[in-house]
Amino acid sequence: MNPSDLLAAAPSLAAGMAAAEHDPDIQLSQTRHRAALVAGWHIAPGSRVLELGCGQGDMTAVLAEAVGPAGRVVAVDVAEPSYGAPVTLGESAARLAAGPLGPRIDFRFGTDVLDPSVDFPDSTFDHVVLAHCSWYFASLGQLRNTLARVRPWARRLLFTEWDLTPVSGAQSAHLLAVLIQGQTEAAGSHGQGNVRTPFSREALLRLLPETGWTADGSEPVDTGELQDGDWEIAACLELVGSESRLAALPEPVRQLVLSQTDVLRALAEPRGNRALTAYSVTAR
Predict the structure, then answer these.
(1) Chain-centre distance of CA 196, in angstroms?
(2) DSSP single-letter state for residue 199
(3) CA-CA distance, 33 to 280, in Å (whole number)?
(4) Distance CA 17, CA 170 (A)
(5) 128 phi and psi angles, rounded to 5 deg
(6) Average of pLDDT values for 74-83?
(7) Are 146 and 113 a contacting pair, CB within 8 Å?
(8) Which of 13, 151, 160, 247 is at a distance of 20 to 30 A from 35, taking alpha carbons?
(9) In whole angstroms, how far apart are CA 205 and each of 34, 41, 283?
């Protein structure tokens, strides 16, 4: 598919998502972002794609559009179909499955590729995709094991995540919210948020050779229209408001988190906080 055609398809793809019923503007911006990423990856029609951490299928829909009727997307997530709000993973997948992209997608929820029972023959897939899901891993070790596990299955890795290095002071609130959540998880107080193990682009590039991948490209990705800065700030403030989460922290960490949260409250706007930039890495 021509990259411009994929970008032009973003409005119809967004409209087909179950979450669009709750906020069509947010869904459109999230779909546009993913369409721009996939357009830059130049996925050929007929490709076979393994997507890890598919969630509600925001990237899945764009990948299915890119591979065309002859292609296939196997979309995997460790979460169960009942996970997610205001739309669950299962509800979103059912909407996609019932639409024109449905025959191209195989959703597999409650699936951990590190489970020995999950296996594919070598080179089953042209691409393996991880899109804004790697910070959800419990540790860098778990991510390392996952990248090594899927290496024989796919010829190419397509990876995107938030970049911890801000390019503007307006991104400081998002950065601080991410770091507070990461510190809380690292100190042993675990939750269900999207941020568990934040790591830098440089950390990923160091990790790839250990897992058999060789990076062949890395580009910054604009996120100017995304709302994730607001979402992570809200998630961080909710975390700090949880007495049980704070009580599980060692006292020095708890005081550090509280002080950083004071700074976050001073920096954050009520709405419209600028999200961190993202980055895209491809590897073979």
Answers:
(1) 12
(2) -
(3) 12
(4) 30
(5) -115, 130
(6) 95
(7) yes
(8) 151
(9) 22, 18, 10
